């Protein structure tokens, strides 16, 4: 894949549209400050082709938040196998992405290759390039810090790294799926084996099962005979019980008639007593007839006297009307005074209650004032605690930073000591200077002393941190206890104000009563007792009464006659009662005699019914006593039936257990056949499992790939070293134990130069770099070749990590060496001094309108 033209808009740091033409150069660097958007160009290429970039968590994250169109779009034109292609990928925010794929025809017109779905279009792009995202980036991109990833591994880990780089993880998936199927077969074998053992155990029980069936059949026959005998006996007893039930109904009927007769006798006795009371009352009334007649005659005379006084009063009607008005005025004034007195008495009771609680009101106010003072004091204390807590937290934060720094320094010293202890050569691993054994020991001693000092500092810092944390916790606890003080203070102020308001209100009520209400009540009571009210009305009433008296009318006498007439009116009713008693007396005497005759007849009937009831009851009880307990007999029969049913079930189970043996025998033959087949399948899957494991086919593929990698690497290394260096991969080496004849698996990198063969680990600087570059290039070629693609474009992101001046020069030399192998090489760097080393450059800058790119050639 050779890029021709790239257009970006709204993608990552690129807001406004930016277009890059790659046709004017073959080798160029992409330069710019850190964060300017250099690596975003690589993300744009992988995203437009494969829909993947470094940001994978959020699909909308690739859209620039400042973009006016609210979408990201990348258009890439590229050449592959002599044809020109164009890919357009657009991602609107919160919407589905769109993808278009086109190819140029002979007339340079774009012809669409877009499929019906985006996933199918992406598959078409991958098939065209013969690369997926992972293979493309691993083959064409040399990313920061990963160029020497394979070489720097331990020899024991290089095979695993190569296993991953070559994409052989699929064999692990094959192995796992094969192992799952083999385990499933093994589980089925175990289940079948368990079932076979169960079948064999059951077949061995055939004699016992047949004997059990015969025994159960005999027990069932005996149980049937016992049950039938019990049913015959119970049927006879049930007929006898039915007869006794009818007899019991007769006893209950006689008893019911006897009880009803007794109730009727009681009602008859009560009626006789009632009529006798009425008879005696009539006789008493008749005996009082003379006195009643005298009272009636006197009442008649009083009525005549009342009529006379009424006539006199009518003659003095006008005076009586004059008399009513002062009477009403006197009563109105009396009612008004009594009502006012009642209100004042009620008010006096309330004032007494208020006076009784005045001491409690004063005590409550004093208590609220004391609580308010305590809270205000605590609030002042809280401010000092907050200041102290902030100071303690600041100290704690500073101590944590110092503690973290000390821990990092300790770790660095540990790593330095370990690296010095692990050095077996004569070169210092830090500065590259010569290193003797004494120098190494001296450095280790100095580092141990520093480690001890740092350890003590760490311990002291940790102890001081614990002490300050304890102080902070205590202060936070104290502060937590005081955190609601403002709310409490406001509540207490409201409470104090309420208590003061209540006390002032009650004192005002008591004072007002003492000055006005109390004296007014005493005055009203005195006036009412002395009749010292409505004086003008009383004077008018006295004048009217004096005039009436002169004219011969006595209102008091008139009232007395009126009362006597009212009292004598009852005599009229008594006269009527005497007449009624005289008329009813004879009838009551006859009714009493008739009722007494009925009572005598009822006594005779009750005696006969009582005798009949006891005779029937004695007969029933005598016959019922000879009847056995029917419930017990029925329970016994039910038990026999249940036992018989259980025996029938037992016989059925015994039949089933015997009949099932024939089916079990067939199943035994079937399971044996299945076990043989499962064993064969398990063996085949075990063979496949071993073949798919890392020691199987993947190991063979690695063994086949190593010569090709070795040849490619040597081709490149020969050009980089002018033929002075050669690389070889050793996959086995002897164990340290000389008694072992076999060899252990490894992947050592052996370098040959003018001094002979040495392991890769003994090379440093420029030599190691050349080896890394050659091996990495060989792996890229291998990945592209295995994918069926040609490696035409190479992207180097910052030259295998951070290099010194000499390292950067080696990088440039290596790139120039391999330039003929590629149609396009792009080197990403932020170093100014590296720009001039390339014939062309893409300058990336960050502006207010997003990242911008300028191309400089020549």
Q: What's the short story on this structure?
A:
This protein has helices spanning 38-50, 118-129, 133-140, 155-165, 169-203, 206-287, 289-315, 317-422, 437-481, 485-529, 535-550, 555-568, 570-625, 630-692, 697-720, 765-786, 805-818, and strands at residues 2-9, 18-21, 27-31, 71-80, 83-92, 98-104, 110-112, 141-142, 726-734, 743-753, 756-759, 793-797, 824-829, 840-847, 850-857. By secondary structure, it is an alpha/beta fold.
The poorly predicted ranges are none
Major sheet, described briefly?
6 strands, antiparallel
What radius of gyration results from the CA coordinates?
Answer: 63 Å
* Secondary structure tally, helices: 17
Silhouette: flat
Could you give the distance between the termini?
24 Å
Helix content: 55-70%
Could you give the order of strands across the largest sheet? 2-1-4-5-6-7
Walk me through the structure:
The chain has 858 residues and is an alpha/beta fold. It has helices spanning 38-50, 118-129, 133-140, 155-165, 169-203, 206-287, 289-315, 317-422, 437-481, 485-529, 535-550, 555-568, 570-625, 630-692, 697-720, 765-786, 805-818, and strands spanning 2-9, 18-21, 27-31, 71-80, 83-92, 98-104, 110-112, 141-142, 726-734, 743-753, 756-759, 793-797, 824-829, 840-847, 850-857. A six-stranded antiparallel beta sheet has the order 2-1-4-5-6-7, with helices on one face. Strands 8-12-13-3-14-15 form a six-stranded mixed beta sheet. Helix 7 (289-315) runs antiparallel to helix 12, helix 8 runs antiparallel to helix 10 (485-529) and helix 15 (697-720) crosses helix 16 (765-786).
């Amino acid at each position: 894949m050779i890029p021709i033209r790239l257009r970006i808009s709204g993608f990552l740091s690129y807001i406004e549209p930016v277009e890059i033409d790659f046709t004017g150069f073959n080798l160029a660097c992409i330069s710019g400050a850190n964060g300017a958007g250099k690596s975003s160009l690589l993300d744009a290429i992988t995203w437009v082709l494969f829909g993947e970039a470094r940001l994978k968590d959020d699909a909308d994250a690739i859209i620039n938040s400042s973009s006016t169109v609210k979408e990201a779009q990348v258009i890439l034109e590229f050449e592959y196998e002599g044809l020109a292609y164009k890919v357009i990928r657009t991602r609107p925010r919160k919407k589905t992405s769109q993808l278009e794929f086109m190819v140029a025809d002979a007339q340079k017109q774009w012809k669409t290759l877009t499929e019906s779905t985006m996933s199918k279009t992406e598959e078409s792009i991958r098939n065209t390039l013969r690369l997926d995202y992972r293979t493309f980036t691993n083959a064409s991109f040399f990313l920061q810090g990963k160029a020497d990833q394979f070489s720097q591994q331990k020899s024991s880990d290089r095979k695993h790294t190569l296993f991953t780089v070559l994409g052989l993880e699929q064999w692990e998936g094959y192995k796992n799926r094969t192992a799952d199927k083999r385990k499933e077969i093994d589980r089925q074998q175990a289940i079948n084996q368990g079932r076979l053992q169960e079948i064999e155990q059951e077949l061995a029980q055939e004699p016992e099962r047949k004997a059990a069936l015969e025994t159960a059949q005999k027990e069932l026959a005996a149980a049937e005979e016992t049950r039938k005998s019990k049913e015959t006996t119970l049927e006879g007893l049930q007929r006898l019980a039915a007869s006794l039930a009818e007899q019991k109904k007769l006893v209950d009927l006689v008893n019911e008639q006897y009880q009803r007769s007794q109730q009727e006798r009681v009602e008859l006795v009560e009626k006789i007593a009632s009529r006798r009371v009425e008879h005696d009352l009539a006789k008493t009334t008749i005996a009082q007839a003379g006195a009643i007649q005298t009272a009636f005659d006197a009442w008649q005379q009083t009525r005549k006297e009342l009529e006379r006084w009424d006539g006199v009063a009518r003659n003095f009607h006008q005076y009586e009307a004059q008399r009513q008005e002062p009477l009403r005025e006197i009563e109105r004034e009396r009612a008004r005074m009594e009502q006012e007195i009642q209100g004042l008495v009620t008010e006096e009771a309330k004032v007494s209650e208020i006076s009784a609680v005045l001491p409690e009101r004063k005590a409550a106010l004093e208590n609220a004032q004391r609580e308010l003072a305590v809270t205000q004091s605590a609030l002042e204390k809280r401010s000092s605690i907050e200041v102290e807590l902030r100071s303690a937290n600041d100290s704690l934060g500073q101590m944590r930073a110092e503690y973290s720094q000390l821990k990092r320094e300790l770790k660095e010293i540990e790593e330095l000591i370990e690296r010095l202890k692990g050095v077996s050569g004569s070169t210092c691993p830090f500065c590259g200077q010569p290193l003797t054994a004494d120098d190494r020991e001296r450095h280790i001693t100095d580092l141990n002393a520093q480690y001890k000092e740092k350890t003590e500092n760490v311990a002291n810092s940790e102890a001081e941190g614990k002490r300050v944390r304890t102080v902070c916790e205590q202060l936070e606890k104290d502060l937590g206890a005081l955190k609601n003080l403002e709310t409490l203070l406001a509540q207490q102020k409201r409470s104090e104000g309420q208590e003061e308001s209540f006390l002032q209100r009650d004192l005002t009520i008591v004072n007002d009563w003492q000055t006005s209400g109390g004296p007014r009540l005493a005055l009203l009571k005195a006036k009412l007792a002395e009749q010292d009210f409505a004086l003008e009305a009383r004077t008018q009433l006295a004048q009217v009464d004096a005039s009436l008296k002169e004219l011969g009318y006595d209102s008091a006498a008139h009232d007395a006659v009126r009362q006597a007439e009212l009292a004598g009116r009852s005599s009229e009713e008594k006269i009527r009662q005497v007449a009624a008693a005289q008329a009813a007396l004879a009838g009551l005497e006859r009714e009493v005699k008739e009722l007494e005759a009925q009572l005598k007849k009822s006594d005779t009937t009750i005696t006969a019914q009582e005798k009949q009831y006891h005779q029937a009851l004695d007969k029933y009880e005598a016959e019922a006593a000879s009847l056995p307990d029917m419930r017990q007999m029925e329970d016994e029969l039910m038990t026999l039936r249940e036992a018989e049913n259980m025996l029938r079930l037992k016989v059925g189970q015994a039949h089933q257990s015997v009949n099932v043996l024939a089916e079990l025998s067939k199943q035994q033959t079937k399971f044996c056949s299945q076990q043989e087949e499962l064993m064969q399948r398990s063996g085949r899957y075990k063979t496949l499992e071993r073949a798919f494991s890392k020691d199987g086919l993947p190991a063979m593929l690695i063994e086949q790939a190593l010569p090709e990698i070795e040849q490619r690497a040597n081709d490149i290394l020969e050009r980089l070293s002018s033929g002075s260096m050669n690389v070889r991969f050793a996959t086995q080496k002897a164990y340290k134990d000389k008694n072992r004849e076999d060899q252990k698996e490894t992947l050592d990198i052996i370098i040959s130069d003018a001094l002979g063969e040495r392991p890769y680990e003994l090379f440093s600087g420029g030599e190691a770099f050349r080896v890394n570059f050659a091996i990495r290039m060989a792996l890229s070629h291998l990945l592209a070749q295995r994918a069926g693609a040609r490696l035409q474009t190479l992207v180097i992101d910052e030259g295998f990590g951070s290099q010194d001046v000499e390292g950067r020069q080696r990088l440039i030399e290596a790139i120039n060496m391999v330039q003929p192998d590629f149609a396009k090489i792009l080197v990403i760097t932020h170093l100014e001094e590296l720009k001039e080393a390339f014939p062309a450059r893409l300058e990336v800058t960050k502006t207010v309108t997003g990242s911008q790119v300028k191309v400089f050639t020549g």
